[in-house]
Amino acid sequence: MGSRSRRIAWGAFALFLAAFAVFESQKYGLPTTVAALVFFVLPDLTRLAGVRPPGTLHQAVNRVWIPLAVLVGYTFGPIVWPPLFTAGLAWLTRIALDRTLGRGLAST
Fold first, then answer.
1. Mean pLDDT throughout 72-101?
2. Contact 75, 42 (CB under 8 A)
3. pLDDT score of 40
4. CA atoms within 13 A on the CB side of 34
5. To bridge 10 with a disulfide, which of 19, 86, 87, 99 should be the other Cys (CB 3.0-4.6 Å)?
6. What are the structural domain ranges in the chain?
7. Minimal CA–CA distance to 99: which of 8, 28, 24?
8. Is 20 in contact with 89 (CB distance < 8 Å)?
9. pLDDT value at position 105?
10. 71: closest CA among 10, 12, 21, 15?
11. Where are the alpha helices (DSSP H) in the chain?
12. Confidence (pLDDT) at 108
């Protein structure tokens, strides 16, 4: 798949995730909204804390599989706490947005 097609796919995925996160925030209220906002800006927070590429923490907050594992674990696990799910959605939205804008990791 070409670079342009990949970016379009990431963009569509980012829109879907953002809509889902907004829906969940509306449904469950303020704690869910706060979790979504905090995890949406998580990559920026790590950068402000002085974490620079290609450090381990920088790599971790920009990998798709970590928020995806949170979402799958929440979906199939025994934990019922909506802010956790919405945080995973927002984090994955941010990663998808970065990939759409061409700011993804070099190895992806």
1. 96
2. no
3. 96
4. 3
5. 99
6. 3-98
7. 8
8. yes
9. 65
10. 21
11. 3-28, 30-40, 42-48, 56-61, 65-76, 82-100
12. 40
